[in-house]
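Duplicate of earlier report; 7275_t:CDS:1 input re-posted below.
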Amino acid sequence: MNNIRNSAKESSLQFKKDFDQENNILNFYFAEEYTVYKR
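Output:
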């Protein structure tokens, strides 16, 4: 039972990590777009 709980926790952490990475890429992209637009 404990193994299942641990692996679920790990996969949700992995998901969060991927999600944060996606967000960083998006934020970077929008920041670039914004600076280009402002020029």
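The chain has a mean pLDDT of 83.

Merging into the original ticket.
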